[in-house]
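User: Continuing from earlier, I have the next pair ready.

Assistant: Great, send them over.

User: Here they are, in order.

Assistant: Folding the first of the pair now:
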Amino acid sequence: MPRRGLILQTRTHWLLLGLALLCSLVLFLYLLECAPQTDGNASLPGVIGENYGKEYYQALLQEQEEHYQTRATSLKRQIAQLKQELQEMSEKMRSLQERKNVGANGIGYQGHKEQAPSDLLEFLHSQIDKAEVSIGAKLPSEYGVIPFESFTLMKVFQLEMGLTRHPEEKPVRKDKRDELVEVIEAGLEVINNPDEDDEQEDEDGPLGEKLIFNENDFIEGYYRTERDKGTQYELFFKKADLMEYRHVTLFRPFGPLMKVKSEMIDITRSVINIIVPLAERTEAFVQFMQNFRDVCIHQDKRIHLTVVYFGKEGLSKVKSILESVTRWIVFFHTESNFHNYTLVSLNEEFNRGRGLNVGARAWDKGEVLMFFCDVDIYFSAEFLNSCRLNAEPGKKVFYPVVFSLYNPAIVYANQNVPPPVEQQLVHKKDSGFWRDFGFGMTCQYRSDFLTIGGFDMEVKGWGGEDVHLYRKYLHGDLIVIRTPVPGLFHLWHEKRCADELTPEQYRMCIQSKAMNEASHSHMGMLVFREEIETHLRKQAYRTNSEAVG
């Protein structure tokens, strides 16, 4: 028994000794792992002559802190990624569950209504809410505007031309033709089969039958595409024997067309106050008043004219022109007078913004739709209706793009005399261009104009005041309708850039003068005239030489 106990005691002693050695080895390895990595030839940081100084421990502490911060940042990033993946998986599960539910209806071009998942329709409607359809977007400058392009049943009036496209052309590409046909058919479906929430009343035909619209009742349309949202369409329909227009707004959020609204617009009592600032230029005013008489007095008959004249020279002649044009012979050879005009005289230097401000405030009969016009503008009765349809107090202002005609002496150089003005009003590449840098012609309600503060009176001389007003609307909440219209022309006239203009105004004036003169091809013919004439002389000489030989 004593020998057995001695053996057990010896084994226990060696076991404890082995455990002690193992613990010492682990502690030694731990100290080696925690020791800083140093270069064998480099001295440790700290005070010279010391192995471990204060700076050494600070550097070591900073290194460890940066290590833990990096690790913590990495862990936070991984946690965020896991949360995002978890959220996406949850949304997918919810989407699969919601697809069992039946959504609202969509509109196809055939007019039938399709059912779609509620999550898809929610997305499509969110695209409409994000787009500038029901409320205007605040934009930093005029370059941020997405302009509309206008179209009829047969033609498209476009701003983006380049050197191969034309300001007016038939839609050649099949996708563009199909798109416009689909849109018109969808608009007809909305009108002929209205929903209960549509703002229009059922009308009957002359025999009591239901009134049905067709593609021949389509008057005009506008469209524009916001590349990250979809395409907006504004459509106008009218029966020949009715006075009311039908307006349909459609939106294609890169998917099926979706109806935004359908309403009836009555413009029968909408009076337009055309305001024209003028100084001298009585010959141009004679031509303007001839157009005014034919369109406004004889056809539209819902117009008031306000002329704001600067200076004394030519004032009496302007009065005489107004009196003679507004007096005309009607049936039974009786004389009738047009009294809906106002002449305001300002004995001061011409300022377009000042003139339009005065003209707007001269109206004292409450709310009215105003058309800011120049004496060189030719407009049609159709344009006046477009003006009424695209301006709405507190909601929309209309900034049409004018088609500016080139110098007729260059355009019709092969004719002895240029044709009459009415025959020059064509949308061709060599006859003119869409004046997309001009913002002077606009239709807006008087209340909106006064609310926004009118024109900036600090702008003197040529140009600039219209851009300032345009930017005011862009910075506000109103929708700005910007589109080329076929019934609005700027007639060519010689420009003079005064020496008193600022450098920026003078640059704009010269640029406008150059662009107004002729098309790219006609300008090229003028520049290379001598080269062309030399070539023709050589050709004639060669032909004569061959004939003699």
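And the other member of the pair:
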Amino acid sequence: MFRSLSLKRSFKTHLKTLIHCPQHPPPPPPSPVLFSSIRALSTASSPPSSSSDSELRKYLGYTALLAFCGVATYYSFPFSENAKHKKAQLFRYAPLPEDLHTVSNWSGTHEVQTRHFHQPENLKQLEELVKESNEKRVKLRPVGSGLSPNGIGLARGGMVNLALMDKVLEVDKEKKRVRVQAGIRVQQLVDEIKDYGLTLQNFASIREQQIGGILQVGAHGTGAKLPPIDEQIISMKLVTPAKGTIELSKEKDPELFYLARCGLGGLGVVAEVTIQCVERQELVEHTTVSNLKDLKKNHKKMLSENKHVKYLYIPYTDTVVLVTCNPVSKWRGPPKFKPKHTTDEAMQDIRELYKESLKKYRARDITTKSSDSNEPNINDFSFTELRDKLLSLDPLNKDHVMKVNHAEAEFWRKSEGYRVGWSDDILGFDCGGQQWVSETCFPAGTLSKPSMKDLEYIEELKKLIETNELPAPAPIEQRWTARSQSPMSPASSSAEDDIFSWVGIIMYLPTMDARQRKEITEEFFHYRHLTQSQLWDKYSAYEHWAKIEVPKDKEELEALQARLKTRFPVDAYNKARRELDPNRILSNNILEKLFPLSDNV
């Protein structure tokens, strides 16, 4: 039923193993010899004296200790599976209730346990659910596909997910508009409207987001002429705890409409949206490799002449991967080209590095050895899968990460060329496996006059990485958007020509080992803290709402709250929260920490 979220039972397999332990059979009965010894000690005749009593207590203590050690040893070492003993049940753990589930985000970096996870099937059910929850003051946090790295949609008290409200309700082919339920996934929407010759104006890297989710967190694609995704929304239906269902648009309550477009799920549950689409078109993707020095000469041209553009920087190298996407020319058609290298040739360096590294680390740690026959064929792995496997060998070793980065630079150098396809295929990006991400947004001048602050930011970031010898993997991704009119968007601006740069840093979590994931997490937050302290204020950079992490330190949290007030209309946002959600059933820990209200429920 949980179509869009990854759910797992909280009653873990290892607890089951503890409850049922076939490898720990019950102990045999105590030896008669042991009982005889105890009896002999207790009936021994000796003159009643303090020394004899002391002696007796000493031997009784030794005997009891011996018996305890025997039983403890018995239960500490596993028996073979075919041991002919009854199953031991030394301890019993009460299983968690059947209705208690653990809900986690995609990267496994945030999770909550909840008994209340609702999936209404239509607007009426949603309205009744919100009304009832408000009357009972029960949490009902809106959550989408669970893809946000910071788990912004999670709440232990209860959640509502619109995965079952995923229909296209109306298509206006002439005006290029579609009205949809907010639970529809991006890929599903694109597939359903392509027969009308329509598609979305822009896309984020992943297609599994629900429309309501990417709208509320201010998600974006790339292209200095294209705004974030919230700007594609021209009207919406919001189910609020205090005022019921309200319809918002530029004509109907425009101030609240713009505020609620990027409302972080705190003003109401987005039930329906009307989206301004564009004609479906084929794009030509062109991938080239350059360096920062040459890039500076052509940067303005790259932003102004390409519909979509992004840069991928490889730490500890001078490599910059340039990816541009533009409509196929109606006159010239798609470019005729022949790749210089095959896929196998492009993958050669990273495959060789994997073989060498695997041999090296196995020689160092005998516990990792296994026969080659058990190893999967590395030719079956994609580039991102192989990168994850390489990094998992030693993810925090700077020298090892540098080698992986150099292999990635070589992969991109041999992958230069063109690719032609529909926009929903071309604009996707394989982000790799589970990961920690921090993405900031900051002003970069105007389209007609870029400030070049975006490239200066990258130069300082790369220098920071090298100076502090951080094990920073690739890529550092840089994208651009036009401004948004939604005041809570990190790219909000009143100037129509303003452009914003978005820069993402990353550390992968290529292992399920808890200790190693903890170490990677600590290193990532050190990496993030350095960028925060040295770059954010200087460039007026603010984190993406789906990637902002709440500080645990009280002083740091207060500083973040004050900083957010200088950029966003926090007072207006909190005022709307009080009016629309007075009992704060839509809120969660992130919202309460970032936007504290003076009154407590």
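Worth noting for the second one:
The first strand starts at residue 6 and ends at 9. Residues 1-50, 74-94, 366-371 have pLDDT under 50 and may be disordered.
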